[in-house]
């Protein structure tokens, strides 16, 4: 059940309903990729609605927008295929490609995809209004497509209140920084989203207050690296931000995603311990555990230090949940390197794990590295890592049976007296769910006594 996706941009409970008056200037957004892309999609929706357009289903829309992902080869392929399929199904409508893929390859795409009517990057999502309003007629076959180039890094992006949230009811992503100052040799993110550009603590806190006033129950703080947040403004600021959010009254959750282990701010452990609203959930992308491969990746940490970080977190916060990510098949990875990774997995025992195989990305330092690992070998190592992780995750989930957990309800199961939700140990999209044996209102938080595990999901009944 944990593979569902909430990112429908059709009007619904998270925003105002469109009525007959909205007919005539309608658009639809297909949001691909990560949560940071989702926030950009929400900002585009807000900008267009402020300009008099209205969000709709693709069947009714005159303009179809694809917010693309360009992180790895499979994401690039999905972005192009989604855009072309939309145009094929809707030949008389304007199809616009925006986002990460077009930021990086905009000029090439404009020449190679004449079916696409317009192209824009990702530096200022509010500029979508310029493209949508640049003529009422879709110009299928025009080449090259009109393109808005990157906005200068210092140019302030216009902010709009995000009326439509693409998350499940009750939660919202809050992007606290753009870009990345790390230079991992395999990663194209700095090429796509630029250098680190943090928002001011007061600005983020103001947005969070507004979301809470609208009924959001879970604030999910995201950046390419939360540990680096604020460094470009003078000093790391994640602790300061949590301190500011801790002064907001109310019963809500704050979840932290994506903290580079090299930059983990130790002071946040005391903040999380002191305020139960700050969830003890830590997403730490270790990526590997071979010292040689870590150095080749441009990462400064070592396996012993990373195990020590996990140990310190669990000692200070006994209920802490650790999620990590590993990359398999990096150039030069040997069987011995893989054994280092397996040993680390067994010692650190992350509660959740995601892994992916190396994708060779142009203009990254790793692109020209020798010792390319055969795809079949990388996939076999990935499968073995996932097999072993299954038992680790199962044991962690089994420890939750018999406990009562607060659960944020996300949706009802149609035709069943059941609902789906998440507890503190489960981030959206990537972790398991809690199956609650009662039909409940999405967005509500309820206490659920867990009585069984079903795969990567937990199951229980509302505590009376």
The secondary-structure class comes to alpha/beta
Radius of gyration: 22 Å
Lateral arrangement of strands in the main beta sheet:
2-1-3-4-5-6
Helix content: 25-40%
Taking the sheet with the most strands, its summary is: 6 strands, parallel
Tell me the fraction of residues in β-strands, as a range.
Answer: 15-25%
Overall average pLDDT: 87
Number of strands: 19
Q: Could you name the ranges where pLDDT drops below 50 across 5 or more consecutive residues?
A: 11-22, 136-144, 149-158
Oligomer: single chain
**Number of alpha- plus pi-helical segments:** 12
Shape: globular
Give the N-terminus to C-terminus distance in angstroms.
25 Å
3D structure, described in words:
There is one protein chain. This protein has 464 residues and is an alpha/beta fold. The protein contains twelve helices and 19 strands. The protein has helices at residues 35-50, 73-89, 100-112, 128-132, 189-193, 201-213, 238-246, 268-274, 291-297, 303-316, 335-348, 375-398, and strands at residues 26-31, 54-55, 63-68, 94-99, 118-120, 147-148, 171-175, 177-178, 197-198, 218-222, 253-256, 281-283, 321-328, 352-357, 404-412, 419-422, 434-436, 445-454, 457-462. A six-stranded parallel sheet has the order 2-1-3-4-5-6, with helices on both faces. Helix 6 (201-213) runs parallel beside helix 7 and helix 11 (335-348) packs parallel to helix 12. The longest helix has 24 residues, at 375-398.
Pick out its properties:
globular; 19 strands; six-stranded parallel sheet
């Amino acid at each position: 059940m944990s593979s569902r996706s909430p990112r429908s941009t059709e009007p619904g409970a998270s925003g105002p309903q469109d009525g007959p008056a909205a007919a005539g200037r309608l658009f639809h957004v297909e949001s691909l990729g990560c949560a940071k892309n989702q926030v950009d999609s929400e900002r585009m929706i807000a900008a267009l609605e402020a300009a008099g357009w209205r969000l709709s289903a693709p069947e009714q829309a005159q303009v179809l927008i694809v917010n693309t992902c360009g992180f790895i080869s499979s994401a690039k392929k999905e972005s192009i295929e989604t855009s072309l399929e939309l145009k094929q199904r809707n030949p008389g409508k304007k199809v616009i490609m925006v986002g990460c893929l077009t930021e990086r390859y905009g000029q090439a795409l404009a020449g190679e995809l004449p079916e696409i009517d317009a192209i824009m990057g990702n530096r200022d999502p509010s500029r979508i209004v310029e493209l949508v309003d640049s003529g009422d007629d879709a110009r299928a076959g025009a080449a090259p497509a009109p393109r808005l180039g990157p906005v200068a890094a210092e140019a302030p992006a216009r902010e709009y209140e995000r009326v439509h949230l693409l998350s499940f009811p009750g939660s919202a992503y809050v992007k606290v920084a753009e870009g990345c100052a790390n230079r991992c040799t395999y990663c194209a993110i700095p090429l796509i989203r630029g250098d680190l550009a943090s928002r001011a603590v007061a600005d983020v806190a103001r947005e969070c207050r507004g979301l809470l006033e609208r009924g959001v129950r879970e604030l999910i703080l995201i950046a390419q690296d939360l540990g680096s947040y604020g460094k470009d403004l003078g000093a790391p600021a994640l602790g300061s931000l949590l301190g500011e959010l801790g002064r907001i009254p109310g019963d809500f959750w704050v979840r932290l995603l994506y903290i580079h282990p090299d930059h983990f701010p130790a002071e946040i452990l005391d903040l999380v311990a002191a305020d139960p609203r700050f969830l003890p959930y830590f997403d730490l992308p270790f990526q590997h555990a071979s010292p040689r491969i870590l150095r080749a990746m441009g990462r400064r940490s070592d396996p012993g230090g990373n195990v020590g970080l996990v140990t310190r977190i669990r000692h200070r916060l006994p209920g802490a949940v650790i999620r990590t990510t590993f990359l398999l098949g990096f150039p030069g990875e040997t069987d011995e390197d893989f054994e280092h990774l397996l040993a680390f997995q067994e010692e650190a025992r992350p509660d959740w794990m995601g892994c992916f195989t190396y994708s060779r990305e142009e203009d990254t330092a790793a692109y020209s590295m020798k010792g390319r690992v055969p795809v079949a070998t990388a996939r076999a190592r990935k499968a073995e890592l996932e097999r072993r992780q299954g038992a680790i995750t199962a044991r962690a989930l089994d420890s939750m049976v018999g406990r009562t957990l607060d659960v944020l309800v996300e949706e009802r199961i149609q035709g069943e007296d059941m609902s789906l939700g998440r507890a503190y140990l489960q981030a959206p999209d990537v972790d398991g769910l809690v199956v609650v044996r009662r039909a409940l209102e999405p967005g509500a938080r309820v206490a659920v006594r867990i009585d069984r595990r079903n795969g990567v999901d937990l199951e229980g009944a509302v505590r009376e």
